[in-house]
Design goal:
This protein is of the alpha+beta class. Helices cover 46% and strands 11% of the residues. Strands 1-5-4-3-2 form a five-stranded antiparallel sheet. The relative contact order is 0.11. It binds a DNA duplex through helix 7, helix 9, helix 11 and helix 12.
Amino acid sequence: MAEKVEVGAKMARSYEVEPIPPYSLRATFTGTEPAFPSVFDGRCLWRVVRASSGTLIPLRVEQVGPPDDPLLLVEVLPSSPPASEADVEEALRALCRFLCTGDDLSSAYAKMAADQALRPILPYVRGMMPWTAFTPVEGLINAIVFQQISLRVAFSIMERFVKGLGEAIRVRGRILYAFPSLDAIMRAGQDGLRMLGLSRNKASYILGIAEALEEGQLDLEALSRLPAGRAIGELTALRGVGRWTAELFLATGLKRWEVVPADDLGVRRAFSSIYGLEEPSGEAIRALCSRWGRDAWPIAYSMLVWAERRERLLKLVGRGARILRVGGPAGT
DNA sequence: AGCCAGGCTCTCG
DNA sequence: CGAGAGCATGGC
């Protein structure tokens, strides 16, 4: 321990990461924010990583190259205790997984280009990586918090949850938060969680999951090795986890991209408007996605973002000017 | 004001 | 079994 004190105490260390192009941090996070405590300020992504040693490691990431020749500058900000080499390596690995720097979307793009309805979307989503949770645990808790309520509300509750239970770190004149530990969540208990805006049900779901994780009855990483169907089965056995939650978790928490939360309201809206389907069922969407294999979630996510963005645009235009209608379902 | 929002569980018939 | 109520907060 002692010899590491002077190494990282004051000086920030920085690293370079070369993502697989095309890659755009800005396209990935503007309009589609990461869940708190990951923060994107328009230029940099800020995040505190909890290493398995327990050390909290604050990171700052900035993209310096263009999407087709991308380079990420990662700064390991000073912390106390200072991060060891092993801590830093672990933090960088987690960061790259989160940022999808090693994920090649070229086959997803090829499939979109070959699809009449998706080809026009492609230029708008190139370089945007699928929304991802920083860790599996975070992904599962996010998915539970996101149930039913609007994204706006869900994000604000996540922020209260993290600020209420996660460690705060002051760095570069900013306050960053670590995602709450399982201990902190369990200490908060039912009442503590409810105070943060969670419903009775969601508070108890999250407590149940935290306990199962702590006692080793639940191993989220182990689900990575199961076929998707079996993983969904294991997950839905948990109280508070239905099919939607299990699928969203697999796609965003474990990056099982052959899985799409097909019953999701936003996904259904996207498939409806882009393919001109009327109230498509989850099964209809699954059928369409199944031919995309592991590109299913990146493609569905692209559709989701584009449809949402277009909706917002139409709403905006609708207020002032005349609408020039382009494509979409023949709605009356 | 009241309803809906990126669901799930519990209850009841 | 299928249908319905209740739930947290924020926006419209």
